[in-house]
Amino acid sequence: MAPVSLLAILLLLSTAAYYFGRRKAFALVGRAEGAVKLHSRPNYYGALTALWCAIPALLVFGIWLVFETQVITQLVVKDLPEAVRSLPPDRLNLIINEIRNLESGSFVSQTIDPAIQAAANHYRNLRATSHAGLAVTTIALVIAAALWGRSRISPGLRARNQVEAILTVILVACSTIAIFTTIGIILSVLYEAIRFFKVIPVTDFLFGLNWSPQMAIRADQVGASGAFGAVPVFLGTALISAIAMVVAVPVGLMSAIYLSEYAGKRLRAVAKPLIEVLAGIPTVVYGFFAALTVAPFIREAGGVLGLSVASESALAAGLVMGIMIIPFVSSLSDDFINAVPQSLRDGAYSLGATRSETIRQVIVPAAIPGIIGGVLLAVSRAIGETMIVVMAAGLSANLTVNPLKAVTTVTVQIVTLLVGDQEFDSPKTLAAFALGLVLFIVTLCLNIIALYVVRKYREQYE
Amino acid sequence: MSSENIENSMNDAINSSPSRTIDIVNRGLKRRYRAERRFRYYGLSAIVLSLVFLALLFVSIVAKGYSAFQQTYIRLAVFFDPEVLKQDTLVNADYGALVRESLLKKFPQVESRKDKRLLTSMVSSGSVYRLRDMVLKDPELVGKTVEVWLPADDDVDMLIKGHFRRDLPESERRVSDQQVAWIERLEAEGRLERKFNTTFLTSGDSREPELAGIWGAVSGSFLTLVITLALSFPIGVAAAVYLEEFAKKNRWTDLIEVNINNLAAVPSIVFGLLGLAVFLNFFGLPRSAPLVGGLVLTLMTLPTIIIASRSALTSVPPSIREAALGVGASKMQMVVHHVLPLALPGMLTGTIIGMARALGESAPLLMIGMVAFIVDIPKGVTDPATVLPVQIYLWADSPERAFVERTSAAIMVLLGFLVAMNAGAIILRKRFERRW
Both B282 and B406 in a single domain? Predict the structure, then answer.
């Protein structure tokens, strides 16, 4: 039985258990020997029965499926011929993958070794057995729980309290998922990054000036060892982000100022949502726009001016990324400008300041901590932005700050290193995780600083 | 300076030149008004600039993409030759031969092998399946001659749509002079027509632009979003309810809050790395599956949904809670029976916006292998699939000119979905928004 349909059956059975339990509760009340007062409303007895059925069964279901693959793989490997089993782990992994592909019926390139074919059949059988076992176990569990739960239902059972206790535990569990996600990110990225740093020293990675992560396919190949000095990659990221900020900060800030201080109601009602639309457009669309419209335009404009512009110039990617970030800067600045108390404005006007003088010398300085926080959040956005640079920036790591040249970024490198055929354990794929670690730490620091600054600022005028 | 001195100097200033201050002000006034006007123009031009960018984006995409909704078809008199279509092998008969024959009958003067190849390359290689489906549906056709509209090759399509210019020298264009002559003859006979491109909306990906469609990607996006919604909405609402209604303010809940705010700002590609390391490598879930994509997007959209749900909960006035508790409801009953129903529209609005973002997201899905070239339409959550934004990314990389317009058209479809979702959120908010 496929796990999905089993899941549906389990949920259906649990729903049935709800009515089963509720009926028992009603039956208790309606007994001939006089009315009995139930502790809770009958629905709670039903809900309690359903929860008793569903929770253990779903736990077994989840744990079973999580460990199924590993256990079956172990069993299959145990039955492989001795010659195969004694292979080094990476070769063994390849064979296991082949068995899995064969088992799931996907395309297998080479002629099939009969031992592998046998193993695949074994794998398939084991999996069928496992799924059948899972179905029997969980369904039996649900029915047993329903009967046991029903037998426990009595007028004195504090069903509501128990249901609420279970629900509270579920709520707490849901709220901790955010923490587990963070831990998961840190552990997964850190684990692979540490494996990378065992091969390539941290200092070489952080301060090396040469990035060319090709690894040799054969040992005797020319240029066999890749270079993993990430400075050009970091510099490229910084360059593109800087261009983006040069576009986004003035435009975003000025439009926020105009909308909140000058614009009439009607212009505000039209322009504000339209600018926000820029934030809702998927980044892949910006990437397409950058690669097919902006980059050729910049190259031709450069040609007219007699400049040689790379077809994947940092300028095009940065410019489009800046456009993407405009609404981000403008809506945050708008919040902070509006948070400045009216009394400060009135004070400046009463001294005879013009509106622009008030804005430049009173409002913006008063709002500057918030605006800086917003800009920091925008920078972290720009650094982590992926699709625009994947589609419009280059792949080769040039150590340059010339915006007309092609540069590469951290996110581009992560994508190119991890998309497509990859062998795990090679420094090339692990390098992506090391870059991911740097990206995560940098954006995390920026976010923490920005959130702290913004929070402090908000408190200032509250 | 003593106070007496100040008083003296002030008196001096007033006595010696009574109109001096106002003179200084007046002298500077022109300059200051100019600065004021300049500042206003800066502000206005910033807004105009953003709107111009927006307009440029939309115009460039629509201008590139609208033509993809049409496709050039060639009408040919196809003779369903009984020699070729043997009864027992109808499924894998050589339907290409039928197309070749009918083209050669149309242009009998073509003789050299090279020219024949050029001629047959004008009809899409997918015509074969179209003819096969016709015959399988109606075996009576065998032995008859029928006029059939067959999709033209993408190069012919591009020429008809004017993306390849006919006045260029032959070496600079992908369609040879010979082919242009044939095309012009077909046009003159009314055998060449642009029709609505149903293939684009109903089929999966293909290496041939004229056969490529977005349905596979749309199905993949749908399955992925179903998983995302099924997981992130209940979990997000539960987390928000706990944090807003039950949790005491302490270091533990502070930690959760900081985490949620940070996760909302973590680059999406990092979630992809998490998915790759945990879901694929550790748990051994299948690559390219909507299931894994949904899990990754769930983790990514959870912070958005939690934050929106919490603000929906805080907007429910405390009097409701007090009234419920006052008539003897337990805390859980108060939340489930009274607060949640009132907060639900706000939560749904936040969820729809989160789903819209998940629909447009592609970077984390690249990490978990949803970039594979997949022709089949995914049927279940563990089938290999791709999603709409990733399909756009894949097509944007393809060298064929015809894929440019298809990419733009796919973007138009994606933007259409996003507009619909956001409009839904706005309507929901307008309809159920309550001011207390």
Answer: yes
Average pLDDT rounded to a whole number, residues A108-126 = 74
Using a CB-CB distance cutoff of 8 angstroms, which residues of chain A are in contact with residue B389? Answer: 282, 284, 387
Q: What is the pLDDT of residues B205-239, one digit of tens each?
A: 888 888 889 999 999 999 999 999 999 999 999 99
Planar angle of CA A111, A115, A118, nearest 5 degrees: 100
Mean pLDDT of the region B174-199: 85
Q: Which residue of B has its CA nearest to A382?
A: B267
B1: pLDDT strictly greater than 50: no
> Which of A258, A293, A436 is the closest to B270 by Cβ?
A436
CA B122 to chain A, closest CA, distance in angstroms equals 27
**How many whole angstroms separate alpha carbon B315 and alpha carbon B310?**
9
Q: From the CA atom positions of chain A, what is the Rg in Å?
A: 31
Instruction: List pLDDT tens digits, range B366-411.
Output: 988 888 888 888 888 888 899 999 999 999 988 888 899 899 999 9
Tokens 């004008």 locate to: B122
Q: Any idea what the Cα angle at residue B423 is, between residues B417 and B425, rounded to 5°? A: 105
> Model-level pTM?
0.88
- Interface A–B counts its CB contacts (< 8 A) at 265
Contact check, Cβ <8 Å, A177/B35 = no
Closest to B178 measured CA to CA, from B210, B147, B161, B155: B155
How far apart are the CA of A158 and the nearest CA of chain B, in angstroms? Answer: 13
Residue B381's nearest CA partner among B227, B274, B271 is B227
> In total, how many domains does chain A have?
2
Q: Which whole number is the average pLDDT over B88-101?
A: 79
**Residue numbers of the domain that contains A305:** 227-460
Q: What domain range is B16 assigned to?
A: 3-66
Q: Tokens standing for A160?
A: 């509501």
Domain assignment of residue A178, yes or no? no
Mean pLDDT of chain A: 86
Give me the residue label for tokens 């400060």. A344
Q: Which of A347, A349, A367 is nearest to A357 (CA)?
A: A349
Q: Are residues A332 and A407 in the same domain?
A: yes
Instruction: Say whether residue A278 is in contact with chain B using an 8 A CB cutoff.
Output: yes
What does the pLDDT read at residue A225?
58
Give yes or no: residues B370 and B240 share one domain: yes
Rounded average pLDDT over B242-268: 89
Chain B touched by A182 (CB under 8 Å): yes
Q: How far apart are the C-alpha atoms of A258 and B44, rounded to whole Å?
A: 7
Residue (of B200, B192, B172) closest to B70 by Cα position: B200
What's the rounded Cα separation, in Å, for the pair B219 and B400? 25
